[in-house]
Write a structure and sequence with these properties.
Elements: H1 18-30, H2 40-72, H3 94-102, H4 108-123, H5 128-135, H6 139-147, H7 154-161, E1 173-174, H8 176-187, H9 192-199, H10 203-211, E2 216-217, H11 219-232, H12 242-258
Antiparallel strand pairs: 1-2
Amino acid sequence: MTENAPPGPEADDLRLTAEEWLDLKYAHNYGTFEPAPGTVQAEAFRQMDNYARREAGRVAATEAADEARRASRPGCAPQAGPEPETGGGPGRGETGKHTQWQTQPASPGQREAARDHVSRLRQDGGTYRSIAAAAALSPATVHGLASGRRRAQPGTAAAVLTVTSPALPRARLDATGTRLRLRALHVMGHGSARIARAVGVHPVTIRKLVRGDARTVSQQLRDAIADLYDAWWDKRAPGRTRFERGAATNARKRAIAGNWCAAAALDDDLLDTPGYRPCQGWKSATGTGVAPDIRPPARHHRRRKGA
């Protein structure tokens, strides 16, 4: 793990699997739930907090040392900011003055501006890792700045403030809503292969999402599945051929075996909330008609000579 990896041997005492650690890491980063005191989840959160604090301290010391080394080089002068005091104690030469100025923390106003900026970037889908990559910093540095657990250098705050939302790589999204939409389509007889053809992806990708093996999804695929769901949620799969009827029957059998919820019982306001679970299970649904065939935009290939 990166931003909040289990801190070491003590993590083994919790007897958590790698998958459980990943789920807790997501919850810790995005605040999807608050663990009850005294639980294993609360202890895991405590360990991740401790790890982040230690990492932030290590990065702060490294940054301070780097600033000191740069300031001690001949010809190094501060780029901006107040002039340091000249009357110092023993051993304070010109180099010492620059070193002290360079290692002064950012002002409270700079830290608050950088912290608010990180919060806005995360609301736009950024993560500590993506923000750190765009600012040429470590994820622990950005996490420490955002949480107020460390006093950032002026250069760190300035680097964060230069990052814009369009510059961030698009983060993957929680797949809860996508999984429930796909399962609701199965209730109507739309199998993974039919859905895959409609959105232009491999059927294995859809099957992983339906089973719950894929915990996240790209925004592009999430949007494509949401659009397909809006078109098919109350429409049953066609049965024009023996193959189509067999595929629809298999999809409905999967929905029955998994006790999957139909679209009518899903709460649209909560559908994309991580961890949302519908209150109802499977119920037979026939819909209001037959779903139309949907094909993704055709890809144009260069025609070969003689074709």
